[in-house]
Specification:
The complex is a heterodimer of chains A (about 800) and B (about 60).
Chain A (H helix, E strand, L loop, with lengths): L5 E6 L2 H30 L7 H6 L16 H33 L6 H21 L15 H23 L8 H20 L2 E3 L5 E3 L3 H18 L3 H15 L6 H15 L14 H13 L1 H13 L7 H4 L1 H23 L2 H7 L3 H30 L7 H34 L12 H7 L1 H30 L7 E6 L10 H5 L2 H18 L4 H35 L2 H26 L8 E3 L4 H12 L14 H7 L34 H4 L2 H9 L1 H4 L21 H10 L9 H21 L9 H11 L3 E3 L33
Antiparallel strand pairs in A: 1-4, 2-3, 5-6
Chain B lengths: L9 H26 L2 H9 L13
Classes of the chains: A mainly alpha (about 800), B mainly alpha (about 60).
Chain lengths: ~800, ~60
């Protein structure tokens, strides 16, 4: 024993872990229940209101409303996604992180006060979200819907969590950082970066703001965030939990520690680039689409490396699969991780994406990951943790097994039915008539075809929830049979030698970093410098690399020592990991930011909204219409023929057509048709009838009715503030006084009301439905930007305009007359 | 021959450059992971399994 070491007793803070576990279980139930209701609404539109109760009780209960605002799908779906991601999985992550970090660092969490602030702050945020989202207060970006005051609270609480975590790392009594801690570090710094950038907004009131990004730029930032929310919130922390709890449950170390290191670095470096695969075949610049596809395909290898590492950890312990429900849940979860990380890159191939995007296939993919990977990892962790946290035994193994089989059946039913629904709908929407000039099926026909599959999905989701309820009962009974425990551990503490601490100079003035950076910059200069100078740079780069190799040969011990030291110093390690993930975002976003300006646009440039159209657009966002309707005609013949205008050349959505849209509204799912050209397609009366009763104008539609839009008054008074905010983020509104803005809005509203009156329908001009109609009538309007208009794309021999899937009914015909 | 790799559009350079950076950094960590000493890897992989009831010994 080292003479400088002394023994001490550590008491872990498991109270915080217990709190997060209970919160996760409760919010998981709420989030899944809301998801089940939302899924039911897609099969039975009546459940967007409560009138159906009157029907099923044979009139005994009178609730006449056909549509109730806070129950509509557009508002409930964001509540479901936010609840399951941030409340259910979020609390589960915090429980796992607090429990494992203390044990891996052999010390108590640095601050109980920070832990309490973290816990209660996070629960308050969830409650605030649960109130504001159904009321229609939203930013209109998927998984980033919460309004700006809540965004600030999230950022602050995340800082509290990060502070507490890194402080604990600093106080640790174990010099090495286990790989699970690496995954937690990457999670904390990356989520902070993604969340802050994607939530940058200009407030117009306490409850409303506009994102500072617009159009394609907003889309790119949104999916840089959205994709990496999956990567760094639903994947990396859960992998950290897997690397800690799976060996504990299996009673043996991870199969290959080396593979876990490779798994970590490859995920961190590759994941961050893959966001643009959510925007394939759209007006996003092609180089970004290729980048997204390339990096998504590269993700196959590390993801499967991680899956195999997890499964092989059970080598020699597979017999536990029969007896231990924890192992059962973990094995199924890791298998789902493997399946969904196989499917993700598959869906990122442009040709496959042409079929899958905007359909339920994507929803199936996401739920294989969330229900299978996240949900089952959570269940396994709860079954392992709760008996230990309350010093007792699991109440019923039979109930845990029942939960497993019911839940597994539910997931398979859910996922398989949505696979079938997505592929069916994608194929139908992409099929043209025999002459190849028009779509073969109406949109609503595709909805009719997938109805049985949507019902099967509801049934699958219900089964999963039943399994979850069985788990809740089992765990409550387990908790009741025990008492909260306090776990202590005796550890040896050694005085940390001064040589083990790394200074910033040692980090950045190290040979590996200097040679790599210099060599890379010089090689890169080859692309940018003029002739001769570029060769000089290339030769310089080669010399630096050769010198680096030579230095490595003579001093590889120094390089190894630097790397080993880095891995034991959490802060420099975190900074380098941050640089790794930030690089991806910067290189993707900055060039697009510079290009996404009116003076860079040639061809179609979006026409500015009028004040009434702007407030109508804000209502469209508030109602969550983007959850079902896209505003993006992809560069695919079936899309152009279905949603474009007859006789208009190249009528896919162009880059400049959504330039001033804060937030962008391209959507990610088409439960209803695309609306990019809606303005010219229908008149005001059609919209009035449609919003009052969608079945009256579109038989077979599953869209909710919006009767409250006919009662509520448009908020004209806030328009000057909204327009001022838009001007501050670069939307070129003309200089108008507050009175002029309001007068313009009122005049346009009166005009629409008069048109409706002339058609025999009376609607007061101050109602929200008028503003929404003004917005919908504006969709798809643009002007030609200054500068030379590029030649129209030839329809033939242009890969982007060819049908991306082999289909005998499709021909590479010209869309143009 | 190398100059033929130079693309006409600036953005395409970024695709190549980012791929090169990612590959280089990944290769570094890959090699480092493979060269990690066995006893170090064994010590790290045992960290979650150290018995809670027994005091841990200094390394």
């Amino acid at each position: 024993m080292n003479s400088t070491a002394h023994k001490t007793t550590i008491e872990f803070d498991d109270r915080t872990v217990r709190h997060f576990v209970i919160a996760s279980i409760i919010w998981g139930f709420v989030g899944m229940l809301v998801g089940l209701i939302a899924a039911t609404q897609l099969s039975f539109w009546q459940t967007n209101g409560l009138k159906f109760i009157e029907t099923i009780t044979l009139g005994a209960v009178k609730i006449p409303a056909d549509g109730i605002s806070f129950l509509s799908f557009g508002r409930l779906r964001p509540l479901h996604t936010n609840a399951v991601i941030f409340a259910f999985v979020g609390n589960m992550i915090f429980a796992g992180v607090y429990y494992s970090t203390q044990r891996l660092c052999k010390c108590r969490t640095a601050s109980d006060l920070l832990s309490k602030i973290h816990f209660w702050g996070w629960q308050l945020i969830i409650v605030a979200a649960a109130i504001t989202l159904p009321l229609g207060f939203t930013r209109g970006k998927e998984y980033a819907e919460l309004i700006w005051p809540i965004n600030i609270a999230v950022a602050l609480i995340w800082v509290v969590f990060g502070w507490n975590f890194f402080w604990t790392l600093k106080r640790r009594n174990e010099p090495s950082l286990y790989v699970a801690l690496w995954f937690y570090i990457a999670t904390i710094i990356t989520v902070a970066m993604l969340y802050i950038v994607n939530h940058l907004s200009i407030p117009t009131s306490l409850l409303h703001s506009y994102p500072i990004f617009g159009g394609v730029q907003d889309g790119l930032v949104q999916w840089w965030y959205g994709h990496n929310a999956v990567a760094f919130f639903l994947t990396t922390p859960i992998l950290g939990i897997m690397y800690y709890f799976l060996p504990k449950a299996a009673g043996r170390p991870v199969y290959s520690y080396r593979l876990s290191i490779i798994h970590f670095w490859s995920l961190v470096f590759i994941y961050i680039w893959a966001g643009p695969h959510h925007l394939l075949n759209t007006s996003l610049p092609r180089w970004l689409q290729m980048l997204g596809m390339l990096f998504s395909l590269m993700l196959w290898a590390p993801s499967w490396g991680g899956m195999l590492n997890g499964l092989l950890t059970l080598r020699g312990a597979w017999d536990k699969l029969r007896t231990d429900p924890v192992i059962k849940f973990y094995v199924a979860a890791i298998t789902f991780y493997g399946m969904s990380t196989f499917e993700g890159p598959l869906l990122s191939i442009r040709a496959v994406n042409a079929l899958s995007h905007y359909t339920d296939w994507t929803i199936a993919h996401v739920h294989a990951g969330t229900l299978g990977w996240n949900g089952f990892m959570a269940a396994g962790m709860f079954y392992w943790l709760i008996p230990r946290l309350w010093g007792t035994k699991l109440h019923s193994m039979a109930m845990a097994n029942m939960h497993f089989w019911i839940g597994l059946t539910g997931i398979l039913l859910y996922v398989a039915s949505l696979w079938a629904a997505g592929i069916t709908q994608g194929l139908m929407l992409g099929t043209l008539n025999s002459s190849g000039t028009l779509p073969k099926y109406e949109f609503v026909e595709t909805l009719e075809r997938i109805k049985p599959l949507m019902l099967a999905r509801v049934f699958g989701g219900a089964l999963y929830l039943v399994g979850y309820i069985i788990m809740m009962v089992n765990l409550v009974r387990t908790i009741r049979s025990g008492k909260p425990t306090v776990e202590t551990r005796e550890v040896y503490i050694e005085a940390k030698p001064a040589s083990s601490t790394m200074t910033w100079g040692e980090v950045f003035r190290s040979e590996p970093l200097i040679y790599f950076t210099l060599g890379f910059i010089l090689c890169l200069m080859w692309f940018f410098l003029p002739n001769y100078a570029n060769f000089g740079a290339l030769i310089g780069g080669a010399v630096v690399i050769l010198k680096g190799v030579q230095t490595f040969k003579t001093g590889h011990h120094r390089w190894s020592a630097w790397h080993e030291k880095l891995l034991e110093n959490a802060l420099p390690f975190s900074v380098l990991a941050f640089i790794a993930v930030a690089l991806g975002g910067l290189i993707q976003i900055i060039p697009t930011t510079m290009a996404n300006r009116a003076d860079s646009i040639h061809g179609r440039l979006q026409t500015l909204y009028t004040p009434l159209e702007l407030v109508g657009r804000d209502l469209y966002v508030s109602e969550g219409c983007y959850n079902c309707h896209s505003q993006q005609i992809r560069m695919l013949v079936p899309d152009v023929l279905r949603y474009g205008r007859p006789g208009v050349a190249d009528d896919y959505s162009h880059l400049g057509e959504s330039l001033y849209d804060h937030p962008y509204q391209w959507g990610s799912k088409r439960t209803g048709p695309d609306l990019a050209r809606e303005g010219e397609k229908r008149d005001a009366l059609w919209h009035v009838l449609h919003m009052m009763d969608p079945r009256a104008t579109s038989p077979g539609s599953n869209m909710p009715a919006y009767p409250w839009l006919f009662d509520q008054k448009t908020d004209i008074d806030s328009l000057p503030r909204r327009i001022a905010a838009q001007r501050s983020i670069g939307v070129p509104w003309p200089a108008l006084s507050a009175d002029e803005i309001k007068d313009q809005a009122r005049a346009q509203a009166i005009g629409i009301s008069k048109v409706l009156h002339d058609q025999g329908r009376t609607v007061e001009p101050d109602r929200e439905i008028i503003a929404i109609i003004a917005y919908l009538k504006k969709l798809g309007t643009y002007e030609q930007a200054g500068g030379p208009v590029p030649e129209p794309l030839p329809a033939i021999d242009r890969p982007l305009l060819r049908p991306s899937l082999p289909d005998a009914n499709r021909h590479p015909l010209s869309v143009n007359p | 021959m190398l100059r033929r790799l130079q693309p006409s559009e600036f953005q395409n350079v970024l695709v190549i450059a980012t791929f090169a950076v990612t590959l280089a950094v990944f290769a570094f960590f890959f090699i480092r992971a493979l060269r990690m000493q066995k006893d170090k890897a064994d010590h790290l992989s045992q960290l979650p399994l150290q018995d809670d009831s027994e005091p841990t010994s200094p390394s």
